Amino acid sequence: MWIGIDDTDSAHGGCTTYVATEIIRELSSEYDIIGYPRLVRLNPNIPWKTRGNGAVAIHLGRGYGKKRLIGNIEERVYAYSSGKEIWNEDLVKKIDEIIKKHAHFYDEKTNPAFVVCRNKPSYSFYKKAVRKVVSIDEAIKNAENCIYRMYKEGRGIIGSVASCSWRPYDRTYELIAYGNEKWVDEDSVIKMDKKIASTFDNYDYENRHVQIVPNAPSPVMYGIRGDVAEELIKAMNMIKSAEVERWLIFETNQATDDHLVRKSIRDIEPFESVIVRGTVSREPRTIKGGHVVFSIYDGDEIDCTAYEPTKGFRNIVRELRKGDIVTIYGGVRKEPRTINIEKIKIEKLVDVYEKVENPVCPRCNKHMKSMGKGRGYRCVICGMKVGEEMALRRKIKRNIEERFYEVPVVARRHLSKPLKRM
Ligand code: ATP
Which one, 122, 254, 259, 307, has least CB within 10 Å? Predict the structure, then answer.
């Protein structure tokens, strides 16, 4: 059976993955864990998420096959590669107690739920929940043959069902280490990042930022992401930090680009994440707050924004010129309607020229005078007129190339696939 949980934490602390460790601590003497527990990120653009819109799913049963070390929660935790399904409704009471003990009920934005599924809900529900806005009713419809509990408004049912319905066609892993004291040695993170090549997004060299440590209050001390689960244990052993009280490896949809859908501009809806190709139609300008905005056109027009937290990435975007062809990857904001850029593929750079000298009059052999921007030139001696194109122009060197550029690690969204993985 699959257990899905979501919306147990608040902006003041807590973490649904920590609740998952508590479920494992309480239940692992009675049940086996099948496969890695899952941390499933859902639509990153919904306004009511606490932080990263993550939900958790755990598969319990009677295990067989290969047994792997996946964590330490008071004792070593193992998971089986396969398992026989079992069904025990008594489990619901235990999970209810754990949620009541750990969820941040006092926060009005926290609306917990959990689900226990006999069969996995349809994959299409995950697809929708990672890409669109879905309703509580849709989640309940997809929870047929499942037992669920909803607390307060119970919105967590959406993430609970969606996390159980994910199938890892593409996947990464995250080892999460928990501890009361929060201290991580920066140099050890850099060393680990350089040594364990299958990990990613550990450290932002451009902005000197330790990315594995969460910004918000949480029981999490750090999380290391990578493509190979076993190597995350090696990576953890390289990190110098305060005492790790427990750790657990999750299989996740992070860094998979699962949220993105290829679209034409006219079909783009708010709160989606899109891949859209167009021609730069309005050149980049910096607006209040340091955000850089430009527009692209494919028959319709839309704004694209590199927000201030994307730091040096804005300098790449500032180099775009009218006529450049680009493909934008990013989340769609409703108000103002704009794409929050996660990465950009520069497909074709146009030739850009700058004027070096006014044209020379062919009769008088003297430089001509401009008649105003875009109006051409006139000879002050004989009065002869010529067009703009007669000025002496020089091709400007473009400071960007025809390739992918991505936001720095510090601004990376959980679901965004880093170029390292592409
Ligand atoms: P954390 O990352 O710390 O776990 P969070 O950012 O995951 O916090 P939640 O507290 O889980 O935030 O809040 C997200 C809420 O949005 C949950 O109630 C979840 O069920 C709901 N939700 C998730 N995906 C969608 C969606 N596509 N449409 C509508 N609601 C959604």
Answer: 122
Distance 112 CA to ligand 1 centre (A): 10
User: If we measure between CA atoms, which residue out of 275, 304, 272 comes closest to residue 291?
Assistant: 304
Take atom 16 of ligand 1 and give the residue whose Cα is closest.
Answer: 49
- What average pLDDT does range 138-154 have in this prediction? 94
Position in ligand 1 atom list of the atom nearest CA 16 = 4
d(CA 114, CA 96): 8
Other CB atoms within 10 A of residue 420 CB: 13
| Statement: 172-252 belongs to CATH 3.40.50.300 | no
Q: What's the pLDDT at 50? A: 79
Domain covering 260-350+401-421, topology: OB fold (Dihydrolipoamide Acetyltransferase, E2P) (2.40.50)
pLDDT digit string, tens, across residues 66-94 = 999 999 999 999 999 999 999 888 899 99
- From the alpha carbon of 17, which atom of ligand 1 is closest? 4
- Residue 223 alpha carbon to ligand 1 centre in Å: 19
Q: Give residue ranges with CB within 6 A of ligand 1.
A: 6-7, 9, 15-16, 42-43, 46, 48-54, 111, 129, 132-134, 155-156, 158-159
Measured from the Cα of 158, ligand 1's closest atom is 20
Cα separation, 224 vs 200, whole angstroms: 8
Nearest CA to ligand 1 atom 7: 53
Domain boundaries of the chain, sorted by first residue: 2-165, 172-252, 260-350+401-421, 353-395
What is the structure's pLDDT at 249?
Answer: 98
**Mean pLDDT computed over 238-243:** 98
Positions of E strands within 11-96: 32-33, 38-41, 54-73, 75-84
CA of 66 to the centre of ligand 1 (A): 33
Structure tokens at 304: 């694209």
Hunting for tokens 């910004």 — which residue is that?
Answer: 215
Ligand 1 centroid to residue 85 C-alpha, Å: 28
Please state the pTM of the whole predicted model: 0.94
Q: Higher model confidence: residue 282 or residue 50?
A: 282
Check residue 30 and give its pLDDT: 93
The amino acid at residue 415 is: L
The pLDDT tens digits for 325-374 are 999 999 999 999 999 999 999 999 999 999 999 999 999 999 999 999 88
